[in-house]
Amino acid sequence: MDRPLVAIAWGPNEANGEELGHARGFVAIGQIATGILAIGLVSYGVVSIGLISLGILSFSAIVGLGVLSFSGLAFGIVAVGGAAVGLIALGGMAIGIVAIGGLAVGTHIISEVGADHAAVEFFSQHASWLLKNLGVERP
Fold first, then answer.
1. Fewer CB within 10 Å of terminal CB in the chain, N or C?
2. 1 in a domain, yes or no?
3. Domain span at residue 56?
4. 13-49: string of b/e by CB count within 10 Å (b at 16+)?
5. Are residues 62 and 53 in contact, defined by beta-carbon separation less than 8 angstroms?
6. Is residue 139 part of a domain?
7. Which helix (H) or strand (E) holds 133?
8. How far apart are CA 26 and CA 138, in angstroms?
9. What does pTM read for this prediction?
């Protein structure tokens, strides 16, 4: 099935029996969007932007799932959000192997109560700017 380069769909599509506009294209913009770059209320794509998004790189206002996810509630290998769950998690509440947050749960954490040496080393190597902004000093 051929996909258009850009697809925009908003509102019902009675011909397809859809109550919401479902855009399907390399660049898709709609209430539901499926594409390489997907922008919509609900979006699925390599780069996905929406209220609810699923993609390799996911930006979402509510719930996001992706390899790299930025969301209110973020799930991913690297998750950043109000609540973040991932191997590496950064958020108000962060759950991960390596986690930074007000409430951090994980094997190696940086939180208000303290900083785990391994977590500080990890972020010193991969995101030293983050530690500087948080006021965490390397031992």
1. N
2. no
3. 6-134
4. eeeeeeeebbbbbebbbbbbbbbbbbbbbbbbbebbb
5. no
6. no
7. helix 128-134
8. 45
9. 0.81
